[in-house]
Design brief:
CATH class of the largest domain: Alpha Beta
CATH superfamily of the largest domain: P-loop containing nucleotide triphosphate hydrolases
Structural class: alpha/beta
CATH topology of the largest domain: Rossmann fold
Number of domains: 4
CATH architecture of the largest domain: 3-Layer(aba) Sandwich
Strand content: 5-15%
Distance between the termini: 89 Å
Largest sheet: 8 strands, mixed
């Protein structure tokens, strides 16, 4: 062939030829992916990878701007000083995640910066504050000087170790003994308001059987002499506590009997006690209204006192209609001057029905409550000066302050670090033996209480005594099996055992009573995780610390929460968790002088609590750690550990699970093939609890009163950061779905399968209709169900502990 002068360039360069990868078709995606991977591995063994003249890829672009402007510069500088990020170095990976392969997002980046300047030293107290709710001096005052019977005064001094009254008792007892007018008691928490109204009632009932000098007059007063006083309280726990205090006082007069009627108890047993006879009755408004309507043996003709303890709380909880009915029924019955036995009651008891209203934060301009219960009431303060000032100025609103010896403080904690900071605070609290015996943690909703109890308790089973151990007479309390448990993470060498308790309104009444009793009588250091159900009136001895993990929905609730400590002159401390930003302004409401409530950053709390290693519970994921750890790395390791606990997959169903149920063969007869179900991925109960707690917490956060929403603004809340506080790696959805997600859906019988399953479902559906709505057709049942749900929604109030969702 002749040369035509055309030159063809076949120069392929120095790089080796690269064979085109084979494309696989057909089969499943997993099979194609596996075939492609095997082909790549075979090709890599045959020929080396092609050399590239491109520069190496930079793992971290230093020129990129910061994602968020509100970054903690101090922590960022420390991080960069420890691990310099250059073009040649890889991105920072926590040391505890190197061996596990799980990387937790850093807790110390992208956090909003606090507005408060913490460089200012906290104000120093010249001398410790003098307790403002302590008993008075024994030399100046005693119960005998207030007009009480000698028998009662000696009983208080010797048996109850109460030798001197408090200020509110000094001003109230003589007033209620000598005068028959209504009274409104207002004093700070822990000042003894319960005894302030109980002692005059007991004194005047005892006067029926005693002479003026205290000697018996021959008249026998017993449980069948009549019902003389009714005491209303908003919660069952407060009713129980009032009954316990009254029973201790009545030991000096054993012929008098008190009892309780509260929700959750057997109405049959309550009717039996009322039939036997009761002199002083303690009740919740709802159950008392029920007995007034349906119990014939409950005679209120001899009732001389009606006490409304925590009256403002009862109004907030939706008991207004019940209080109106109770007051109306008691006032409608004519006051009997004598009882059925002919005993003259007007000789010692009030000649009219006396109403006593008690509260620590009640405002005098609450017109509804005054119109319902009080008639020309006397306003009694803890000090005479406040009474005279109130009479002169005629103010309609009384100011209230916390006890002087109570030390309040606030911790500014970013949302991502809330759970770690709480554990660090508790760990530092119980680091020394005997410094703190009992602590109460207030949380906004019941779901969040359940989650924090489960995450903080020790998951290891309780050790059983050996079989050869001698038997003990004490039986285990079955009511506290799920509400009392040893704590994890917060123990120390000084306190190797810390007992964890949980309490909220969704628990059964026997469980609530047993849990509160266990916390009160616990000899070891103890922590109670609870809702606002424990914020009113409960007097638990030796409570040294109150932690408001979630701020109260209204400032009066905050006052009652911190009032669980520093009672009767004892010292106490209250700590409030606040988020950086608008919530920092909430400190202005805590005290007339905001500087008296110091604010501290979370760094100091976490550094103090995590100075030593955290004792992780056995049987839980343990992250790999280095020999020398800083408090920041310990915090990240602890957060990763908690997240791994939530992600731990429980035992999945075994492969080859068939459709057979209870040993029955699958469909198609005995010789039919069994159909394998696809193995479903199960989620741990702790993860489900964390998601539900997060949803309920966000919904509860939106229920702050209107006047305080400038501090608690939903638009300022970072849901992703808040999810980290519940051990979640992303914020779950369904926050605004309401309770419909948790209701059970009933399938119509026509859509169900035929056979025994349809018969069983139909019978259960009709049983549900018959039990709840009295049977009938579907339209009637729907109307009755809608009416019941409407009534339930009207009765829902703060007593439900915001257990929304």
């Amino acid at each position: 062939m002749a040369d035509d002068g055309i030159f063809v360039n076949f120069d392929l360069g120095d790089a080796p030829l690269v064979r085109k990868q084979q494309k696989f078709t057909g089969g499943t995606w997993r099979e194609r992916n596996k075939a492609n991977r095997l082909a790549k591995e075979a090709q890599a063994q045959v020929q080396p990878a092609p050399s590239s003249t491109k520069p190496p890829r930079v793992p971290y672009d230093l020129s990129r701007p910061v994602k968020r402007l509100r970054t903690d510069d101090r922590v960022a500088e420390q991080r960069q000083a420890k691990i310099p990020r250059t073009a040649e170095s890889a991105p920072y990976v926590p040391s505890h995640a190197i061996k596990t392969g799980l990387v937790s997002s850093s807790l110390f980046t992208s956090n909003p910066q606090a507005i408060t300047k913490f460089d200012e030293p906290p104000p120093e107290e010249a001398e410790p504050a003098k307790p403002s709710n302590a008993p008075l001096s024994e030399e100046a005052e005693n119960f005998r000087s207030l007009g009480m019977w000698t028998r009662v005064a000696q009983h208080l001094a010797t048996k109850l170790e109460m030798k001197a009254p408090t200020a509110i008792q000094k001003n109230t007892i003589p007033q209620l003994i000598k005068d028959d007018s209504d009274a409104f008691l207002q004093a700070e928490t822990g000042s003894g308001k319960t005894l302030a109204y109980l002692l005059p009632i007991v004194h005047r009932i005892m006067a029926l059987s005693l002479n003026e000098d205290g000697t018996p007059n021959g008249i026998k007063v017993h449980r069948n002499s009549g019902l003389f006083a009714i005491i209303l309280a908003p919660t069952r726990e407060l009713c129980k506590q009032i009954a316990v205090v009254l029973e201790k006082v009545l030991r000096c007069a054993p012929w008098l009997v008190c009892s309780t009627v509260i929700g959750g108890e057997s109405k049959k047993s309550e009717k039996s006690r009322l039939r036997k006879g009761v002199n002083i009755l303690i009740a919740t408004p709802g159950r008392l209204t029920d007995h007034l309507d349906n119990t014939e043996v409950l005679n209120v003709g001899t009732v001389r006192w009606l006490v409304l303890d925590e009256g403002d709380r009862m109004m907030e909880m939706g008991f207004e209609d019940d209080i109106r009915r109770i007051v109306g029924k008691i006032r409608a019955d004519k006051l009997a001057p004598t009882n059925e036995e002919g005993l003259v009651l007007d000789k010692a008891l009030p000649k009219r029905r006396v109403t006593v209203l008690c509260s620590a934060t009640m405002k005098m301009n609450v017109q509804k409550l005054g119109e319902i219960s009080l008639e020309e009431a006397v306003h009694i303060h803890a000090s005479k000066a406040e009474m005279e000032k109130d009479a002169e100025v005629g103010s309609t609103e009384a100011a209230f302050t916390a006890p002087a010896q109570l030390k309040q403080s606030c911790i500014i904690v970013p949302a991502k670090l809330r759970l770690v900071t709480l554990i660090a605070l508790l760990k530092a609290t119980f680091a020394r033996k005997g410094s703190v015996m009992k602590a109460i943690i207030f949380i906004s909703c019941a779901d969040s209480v359940d989650f924090h109890y489960e995450i903080l308790k020790d998951p290891a089973p309780i050790e059983q005594p050996p079989s050869d151990a001698p038997p003990t007479n004490t039986k285990p309390n079955i009511h506290i099996e799920t509400t009392v448990s040893p704590a994890a993470y917060i123990t120390s060498p000084a306190n190797t055992k810390v007992v964890l308790h949980r309490l909220h309104g969704s628990l059964a009444q026997p469980v609530r009573s047993a849990t509160l009793k266990a916390f009160t009588e616990c000899k070891d250091p103890a922590v109670l995780i609870t809702t606002d159900i424990s914020s009113r009136g409960l007097d638990v001895p030796a409570v040294d610390l109150v932690i408001e993990y979630d701020p109260a929905f209204a400032f009066p609730d905050h006052v009652h929460r911190i009032g669980r400590t520093a009672r009767a002159g004892r010292s106490g401390k209250a700590v409030l968790f606040l988020l950086p930003g608008p919530e920092e302004g909430y400190r202005n409401l805590l005290s007339s002088d905001p500087k008296s409530v110091p604010m501290e950053p979370y760094e100091s709390v976490v550094q103090k609590g995590l100075a030593a290693a955290v004792n992780l519970p056995t049987g839980t994921p343990v992250p790999a750690t280095t020999e020398k750890q800083t408090w920041t790395s310990r915090a990240e390791a602890l957060q990763l550990h908690l997240e791994q606990r939530l992600l731990a997959n429980p035992d999945a169903p075994a492969d080859g699970e068939t459709d057979s149920v209870k040993g029955k063969p699958a469909k198609g007869g005995a010789n039919a093939k069994t159909h394998k179900r696809p193995q479903e991925k199960k989620e741990s109960p702790l993860l489900v609890s964390g998601r539900q707690a997060f949803r309920s917490h966000i919904r509860a956060y939106a229920t702050h009163i209107k006047d305080e929403r400038q501090y608690f603004n939903m638009e300022e809340l970072h849901l992703g950061h808040m999810a980290k506080a519940f051990g979640l790696r992303e914020a779950p959805g369904g926050i605004g779905s309401g309770i419909s997600r948790r209701t059970h859906k009933f399938t119509a019988p026509s859509r169900q399968k035929s056979g025994a399953g349809a018969k069983q479902a139909s019978s259960s559906r009709s049983k549900f209709d018959d039990d709840e709505f009295g049977g009938g057709n579907d339209d009637e049942n729907k109307k009755r169900m809608a009416a019941a749900m409407a009534k339930m929604s009207m009765n829902m109030n703060s007593a439900s502990e915001y257990n929304i969702g």
